[in-house]
Amino acid sequence: MRLDDLGKTLSSVTKGRSTVVVTDKNVEKFYLSRCVESLRKEGFQVDTFVVEPGEESKSGKTYLELLNFLASIPLTRTDFLVALGGGVVGDLTGFAAATYLRGIDVIQIPTTLLASVDSSIGGKTGINLEAGKNLAGAFHQPLLVYQDSSLLQTLPAAVFKDGMAEVIKYAILQDKELFSMLKDVKWTKSHIDDVIQTCVSIKKVYVEEDEFDKGRRQLLNFGHTIAHAIEKATGYKVSHGSAVAKGMLSIAEIAKKQGLCEQNTVDEIRKILELYQFDLEISQSPETLYEMILSDKKRKGASIDLVVPFEVGDCRLKRVTIEELKRVLCNSEIERHREDK
Ligand code: GLY
């Protein structure tokens, strides 16, 4: 799919005639005018809403500004939103679409690897609250995920790497073949479409089986419990992908200490993350991380479901009580922990 064909494609999938394209200032420079032109050429009425890049835009303030903007046009129930961007733009726009007029359509156009393989698919939308990441949100499936992988060509290396954490997550979760392939770093340029397709196919099965995240879909959160705690503790200065990399290794180390996996599994996970040059040091104390995890939305009363690697290609859900989690985390002597800052 090419961005320039967006208008043509949408003509046949929606009856809506008006749209707002939401993007951020980074993506605006490269792709907004192409996106808008393609839509206008097919007769769509197009407005745009551009947010600051970064996690701060997943806030209640930006969300309300966006809703008020939609109402000022006004966008009606048959109209739709376009999310042109990465995870922040996708989650924010998806949540606005889920709630504006009690729900209008949204088209996701991922422009990062992370959004391509994960956040644009499956209908999780939301914003952050002061208490934690993604604490307000809704399940709202996109009408269409419009994937044009050439849009990833302008990604800074660090942002591309961020998405690699999610790709590695899928491999550790259930795909040994993908894991082996990723060990050969030369794959990146020529096989990006295959890698995206593989990840999307894996995620599709989890979402179809468990759309509302009550069971198996939670496995997709491998590494995310500790990751969200790190993101929150650092005021989102550590990016999502970097935090997921740290989180995956930490939970593997904890699993080893609990006798749930072999040292070999921890070593394999560490090696692949090092291959992609992830900084695996965690500067928060286990106590700080535990405090942050208490407000995690995956918590269920006095317990929380952790995703634990038994080996590469085999992760399982393990329910632990909050007390157990504290004991496991705070006795884990996470090796990369320095000083709590
Ligand atoms: N990002 C995990 C999920 O969509 O369930």
From the helix content, strand content and strand pairing, which structural class follows? alpha/beta
Ligand catalogue = glycine
- Enumerate how many helices there are, as a single number: 13
What's the total number of strands? 10
| Molecular shape | globular
H and E order: HEHEHEHEHEEEHHHHHHHEEEH
Distance between the termini: 46 Å
List the helices and strands and how they pair.
Layout: H1 6-11, E1 18-24, H2 25-41, E2 45-51, H3 60-72, E3 80-85, H4 87-99, E4 105-110, H5 113-119, E5 124-129, E6 132-139, E7 144-145, H6 157-174, H7 176-182, H8 192-209, H9 224-233, H10 240-257, H11 263-275, H12 286-293, E8 299-300, E9 303-311, E10 314-321, H13 322-330
The chain binds glycine (GLY).
